[in-house]
């Protein structure tokens, strides 16, 4: 049994779709709510890699930001190493979690040198210059970059090098948990494989726990222990990577896999229909408007998670 590091219970994050003026507040005419994350339960073990897959706009990035305390939940709880994360202990938790953002060029300060970027988390921890220099050399070596890169600026680096710098910054403070938001989406195919191998190697060396946010099923297959499929703010399937990707239970996971090119298929079939608006969600099962197996019950009742073998799935077919 793996010890649980990160846990969420009925986690929700709602945003207002726009700003409201004073008159709107008086009349109580507030903008509609965007239900980015809606009642999500998930556990991530120590040293475990969970891949969160789904189409763009389904709430994956918001969920990652919640776990790294960059967003505050609207409702629900987040637990880190057995303790509930509250405002009073957010600062302590933030020292143990990091996030690698989707576009490294936008997330790296163009005015800072690579060394300044990577060691910035250590500066906030009050670590001496000697210790910072030693840690900088260590993490740059770990991500496969020479410490001579320290004086360069982000504009002087290739896409793969910028992503390695972003990873170096995330591990320099020795976190226990890292959320990676589409860590390879902005990279060429050859560089993607280098970064994925880097992440696998770092996990083996440092025993990090990862949440890998991706729309790329191949990335999930290669790097993760378990896969969670997210649709319209909810997790609809969760289980061991090999089982979920070999025999997906939820129709949405099946549709995602049909959209992935392979040697065995001659035709790619993307999921049919439009992704629902997170402002005006369908009643019942949120996937019923696109599901080829829809039943009357699906249109009115939202299915809860249930165990099918080693996989949890939210679908009335089960």
The name of the CATH superfamily reads P-loop containing nucleotide triphosphate hydrolases
Give the C-level CATH assignment: Alpha Beta
The ordered string of helix (H) and strand (E) elements is EHEEHEEHEHHHHEHEHEEHHHEE
Distance between the termini: 26 Å
* Secondary-structure arrangement, i.e. CATH architecture: 3-Layer(aba) Sandwich
Mean pLDDT: 90
Oligomer: single chain
User: Biggest sheet, open or closed, and with what strands and sense?
Assistant: 8 strands, mixed
Strand content: 15-25%
Low-pLDDT parts are none
Give the CATH topology: Rossmann fold
Rg, alpha carbons: 21 Å
Helix content: 25-40%
- How many strands appear in the DSSP assignment? 12
Strand order of the largest sheet: 6-7-8-3-9-10-12-11
| Helix-and-strand structural type | alpha/beta
